User: Fold this.
Amino acid sequence: MRESSGTGPGTGLILGIESSCDETAAAVVRAGSEALSNVVASQMSLHANYGGVVPELASREHLRNIVPVVREAMSRANITFADLDAIAVTEGPGLAGALLVGITYAKALTFGLGKPLISVNHLEGHIHAVLMETRQRSEIPMELPLLALVVSGGHTHLYLATHQQGSETWTYRNIGRTVDDAAGEAYDKVAKLLGLGYPGGPWIDALAPHGNPRAVPFTFGQIKPRAPREGITSKKAPPPGEGPHFDFSFSGIKTAVLRYVQTHHLHDSIEARRAAFAADPTLTPKSAASVTLCDQQTLDLIASFQYAVVGNLQRQTFAAAEAFGARSIVVSGGVAANSELRRRLQAEADRRNLPIAFPSLALSTDNAAMIAAAAWPKYVAQNFASENLGATPQLRLGQQ
Ligand code: KG4
Ligand code: ZN
Assistant:
């Protein structure tokens, strides 16, 4: 089976709104396949001072940004609110206060305009970012079932996704997830530990090619298969599920990097680097000076960390694809921007003759085009949200 592009009522103009974490975003997408605008107001520099997202600051910034960002998205799309067929908004998962800003604004807009409201799971959005772009490029649709690796600062998930022929409704099954840190979180924490900038992914991505990836042999232990357990309500406790699960764990490698830093007495050089970066905020991950601020031992550590993380993501993804008979692979989320991940997953997919797709760099990280794109099948199915829609910070996607 192939995923279809589909057509439906109206002109298919959907305004997407995303505010689940630290980006306030709005976009207009036509029929899930053509982004007429895609506006993102990033709060990255604000949170960089704290080395991570501060929820209260995020909510305040969303409040400040939501109106101008939506206006800009409408203006760039060159349409009026009356032209819209629906408004889609991220319901979760994410930060409660941040989600509420987008949801409240979207509800007010739909109420005022008399247009339908569509709620979208942020993780589904990441998957549809890639599907939208393959349609936009008029590529052959991805073969189903497809395996989606959603890998970002808050998530590391594997989903098996499909839809029945003739139906626009997608179904998802979670067949793997991190049991502790997300992969992007590990990038961010290791970068912070080594005195690099925030978010850490782009720094480690840019510096890793200057080091020896085999210098420090990091290993990943086997994660025990999930077993049904009753009476456990912690969000870390995996629920009962059928079939094999391909789970991830990234807290161990973060601790291993910390131990390496301690046993090799890297603290002084890290502090010196941190001070140098603080003194010159114009330095970027790709500045030549950023490389020279790292000694060879640190560059080797960075390269080895990335080599191990990407290797782990690669092994689990292809093992899951094989076990579940996936016929194509989609990779999405902030970490999908990583050049080594793209290179190695593409090479492995080519070796196995499996189609694989990545989002453009702009649609790898959080955006609203992905929310508007994921809303399109729901619009066709007239699957609308009620006026009581609230934020669901722990929202899950599909069957677990
Ligand atoms: O999808 P995203 O914008 O937000 C979440 O939903 O989390 O992802 C942000 C994450 C951060 O952890 C960031 O360090 C990571 O994506 N990231 C990268 C790269 N660019 C962003 N990780 C590795 N390599 C990159 N080039
Ligand atoms: Zn995301």
